[in-house]
Specification:
The complex is a heterodimer of chains A (48) and B (227). Chain A is of the alpha+beta class and 48 residues long. Chain A is built from 1 helix and 2 strands; from the N terminus they run ββα. Chain B is mainly alpha-helical. Chain B is built from 7 helices and no strands. Chain B has helices spanning 7-27, 41-68, 71-103, 111-132, 136-151, 153-163, 179-214. In chain B, helix 1 (7-27) packs antiparallel against helix 7 (179-214), helix 3 (71-103) packs antiparallel against helix 4 and helix 4 packs antiparallel against helix 5. The longest helix of chain B has 36 residues, at 179-214. Chain B is globular, with a radius of gyration of 20 Å. Classes of the chains: A alpha+beta (48), B mainly alpha (227). The A-B interface holds A 1, 3, 9-15, 17-18, 20-22, 24-25, 28-29, 32-33, 36, 39-40, 43-44, 46, 48 and B 21, 25, 32-37, 39-40, 43-44, 47, 83, 86, 89-90, 93-94, 97-98, 100-102, 195, 199, 202-203, 205-206, 209-210, 212-213.
């Protein structure tokens, strides 16, 4: 991933970091929700 | 399928999160110094705030169990600590992705970053401890005590940028950031609060199922366990 740093200290570019950050967020939230569902299903199948 | 009371909360949170992240990506201006990289803050900052809330809820569960002995509080601790660790790891990854283009490094041993790492690791330790102790009462008591010590890191992490010289920026407010950025940040924070509340309640229900399965069988009049 590349980022362009202008000589005056301003950050330009960096969209690749933005996309990865948003992608990781959704992977975490969806992955954790899936893990909850699977554990819930297993627990219900085991019974009390 | 019957909806639980928390499901509409999770649904609204999911819709707000989709809208908020779309706005964060495409409908807000870039920042003068940080350019488009500022868009990472719409996922990073809410993750930071909500992980602190989740760890605070774990503290309440721990204190509640120690004062009352009720397992329902132990389930609050278990659910909040686990969700807090998930958000804490997400916070650190998105923070690293913000740090690289703005600071030039993914990680530095700055006070805010270090205190955050210690906070997440100590609550991860609580989860490991819970997985190692089989006796439900000892597990609840020990993890409550460790959680209270772990929760000391919550205010330390929050105020670390005030107490020590830090490369991390200080807390922002509505007065220090522009209105379009502030509004979308608040929208994403609200969305993540709702989604996290839904996750914690679902995880709490799972913990309650587990706790009920661990409870001893009721005794008959003869003092024998009922088959």
């Amino acid at each position: 991933m590349t980022t362009m740093f202008a000589a005056n200290g301003y950050v330009t570019g960096g969209w690749s970091y933005v996309w990865v950050a948003y992608g990781v967020t959704w992977v975490f939230l969806a992955g954790y929700t899936l893990s909850l569902y699977l554990r819930w299903r297993d627990r219900r199948e085991e019974g009390p | 399928m019957k909806l639980a009371w928390e499901d509409p909360i999770g649904g609204v949170g999911l819709v707000l999160l989709l809208v908020g992240e779309y706005m964060g990506l495409f409908a807000t201006p870039n920042e003068q110094m940080m350019g488009d990289v500022v868009r990472i803050l719409y996922v990073h900052v809410p993750a930071a705030w909500v992980s602190l809330l989740a760890f605070s809820a774990a503290f309440i569960g721990a204190a509640g169990y120690l004062f009352s002995g009720r397992k329902v509080f132990d389930s609050v601790l278990e659910a909040s600590a686990e969700v807090g660790v998930v958000l804490g790891v997400l916070l650190m990854i998105t923070g690293a992705l913000f740090a690289r283009p703005t600071w030039g490094v993914y990680w530095t041993w700055d006070a805010r970053l270090t205190s955050t790492a210690i906070m997440v690791l100590t609550f991860f330790g609580v989860l490991v401890l819970r997985s190692l102790v089989e006796d439900p009462d000892r597990r609840a008591t020990w993890s409550a005590v460790v959680s209270i010590f772990a929760a000391i890191n919550v205010p330390i992490t929050y105020y670390s940028v005030d107490w020590w010289r830090s490369i991390h920026q200080m807390q922002s407010s509505a007065e220090t950031i522009s209105k379009p950025i502030h509004n979308v940040l608040m929208l994403n924070a609200l969305a993540l609060v709702l989604v996290t509340a839904w996750l914690v309640v679902k995880r709490w229900r799972l913990a309650r199922l587990h706790a009920l399965a661990e409870e001893p069988e009721p005794l008959s009049d003869m003092g024998e366990e009922v088959a």
